[in-house]
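Key result, reporting period 2: structure in, sequence out.
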């Protein structure tokens, strides 16, 4: 690729440095592929120098003079908060910087000792009068109490629907610009309270500090993205028509939406569902997962503080069965947004289909068996980093987590060894300690299910690698990383696939 250029330089007795790869032949193909992609680009100097269509004057300029001519040019590279054209980016933290790390640890740790009392929020008031209350303990330390939780009864559930239904006309007639501005204020409220939210994500959701920061960023971005999109999409538009005729396309809200969110993204998905429905002019009844209702209660209060009418957003902490019985069967429910298991989504769909009134929009996001395919052109060290991050971070409980890795036979042994060695470096423990990479799974039932799955695969004769357990963490719902070697996706029984289609 550079032969002609090299020969020209050597003939003029110029000093030439040759850059050549040194390493194992196994790594050569992937390295050469990356270099070819970089050097083969049309804008690359090497491509230009061998092209007869590029004039010599475009290549033979004084680089020093070129740089000096650019000194007065304004820097057009946007700062991180300005990388999006229509909205502000959320703030993150570089935890590799010790000052940031120490500052964040001090701020977040100040909330770790908090004990909460949470209940449903109906018309802005917490319904702590219910006799049905439970204690919620931290998954990382099952003896450590986090909250008292008051579960809504049938009267309170129906009251939330009555109130949301009555508020619909007022909220839907509010200008979309006003609704969008409220979403912007919600994003600011979340950002202003991020340290306590990090604490709750760590204590209640068992997130690492990295995952907690990223989830808060996603929640803030949901608010700002939907606000900017609403101003573009939901405004009235004049359509082309005949002379003397004026056609206007206007978007209208549907009614009361039920938003059912999961425990594995208790902040981001909860916020995303709710603000999307609200900015479209719908009133909302939010039903969080029972394992993470403290975060939901905290966020709904922030939303009310930001300007969402108290009757336009109701929080109902109740069992899925009671939500189905008292809300989903009611004809006043105009739509359902759900993130969770395949099995539950099918049950909700059937309940809505059995209603006598019209078709109800059902927006469902469920999990699955996410796969990664790796061939010999890949850089194995990078693959290893990505596999660990996708498979094991958040204790593997994300709907997007990697479940099955397909590897080209020629690189199989090398990649497997790298992944196993890297897995051994992961620290498992209470994520209150920021140095731990992986925390507890959400509850004992989930932990037991994982153990049963591993036992089943062992009895079936599969080779299983288990993280070397250096600590016996019996004070929480901890499950160490495992890697199971299979020959085909068919080696996993259908009932196991269905069971682990979780979100």
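The corresponding designed sequence is given below.
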């Amino acid at each position: 690729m550079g032969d002609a250029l090299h020969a020209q330089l050597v003939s003029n007795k110029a000093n030439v440095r040759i850059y050549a790869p040194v390493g194992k032949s196994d790594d050569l193909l992937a390295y050469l592929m990356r270099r070819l992609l970089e050097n083969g680009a049309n804008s690359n100097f090497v491509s230009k120098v061998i092209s007869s269509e590029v004039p010599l004057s475009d290549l033979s300029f004084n680089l020093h003079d070129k740089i000096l001519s650019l000194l007065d040019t304004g820097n057009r590279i946007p700062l991180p908060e300005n990388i999006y054209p229509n909205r502000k980016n959320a703030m993150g933290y570089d935890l590799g910087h010790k000052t940031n790390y120490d500052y964040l640890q001090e701020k977040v740790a100040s909330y770790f000792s908090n004990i909460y009392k949470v209940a449903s929020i109906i018309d802005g008031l917490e319904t702590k009068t219910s006799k049905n209350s439970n204690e919620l303990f931290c998954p990382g330390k099952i003896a450590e109490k986090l909250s008292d939780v008051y579960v809504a009864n049938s009267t309170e559930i129906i009251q939330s629907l009555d109130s949301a239904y009555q508020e619909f006309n007022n909220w839907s007639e509010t200008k979309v610009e006003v609704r969008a501005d409220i979403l912007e204020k919600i994003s600011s409220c979340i950002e202003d309270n991020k340290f306590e939210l990090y604490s709750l994500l760590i204590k209640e959701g068992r997130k690492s500090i990295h995952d907690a920061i990223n989830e808060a960023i996603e929640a803030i971005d949901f608010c700002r993205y939907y606000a900017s999109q609403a101003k573009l999409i939901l405004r009235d538009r004049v359509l082309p028509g005949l002379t003397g005729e004026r056609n206007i396309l206007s978007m209208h809200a549907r009614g009361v939406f039920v938003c059912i969110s999961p425990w594995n993204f208790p902040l981001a998905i909860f916020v995303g569902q709710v603000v999307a429905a609200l900015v479209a002019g719908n009133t909302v009844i939010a039903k969080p997962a029972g394992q993470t209702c403290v975060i939901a209660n905290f966020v709904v209060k922030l939303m009310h503080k930001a300007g969402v009418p108290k009757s336009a957003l109701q929080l109902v902490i109740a069992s899925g069965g009671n939500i189905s019985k008292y809300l989903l069967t009611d004809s006043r429910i105009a739509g359902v947004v759900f993130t969770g298991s395949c099995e539950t989504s099918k049950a909700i769909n059937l309940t809505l289909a059995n209603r006598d009134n019209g078709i109800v929009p059902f927006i469902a996001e469920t999990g699955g068996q996410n796969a990664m395919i790796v061939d010999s052109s890949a850089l194995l060290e990078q693959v290893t980093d990505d596999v660990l991050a996708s498979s094991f971070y958040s204790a593997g409980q994300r709907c997007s987590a990697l479940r099955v890795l397909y590897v080209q036979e020629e690189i199989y042994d090398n990649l497997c060894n790298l992944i196993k060695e890297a897995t051994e470096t992961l620290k498992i423990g209470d994520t209150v300690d920021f140095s731990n990479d992986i925390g507890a799974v959400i509850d004992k039932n989930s932990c037991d299910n994982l153990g049963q799955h591993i036992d089943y695969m062992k009895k079936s004769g599969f080779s299983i690698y288990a993280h070397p357990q250096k600590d016996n963490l019996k004070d929480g719902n901890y499950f160490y990383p495992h890697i199971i070697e299979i020959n085909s996706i068919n080696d996993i029984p259908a009932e196991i696939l269905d069971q682990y289609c979780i979100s």
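The chain has three domains: 3-69, 121-365, 372-499. The radius of gyration is 28 Å. This case is discussed further under Risks and Mitigation.
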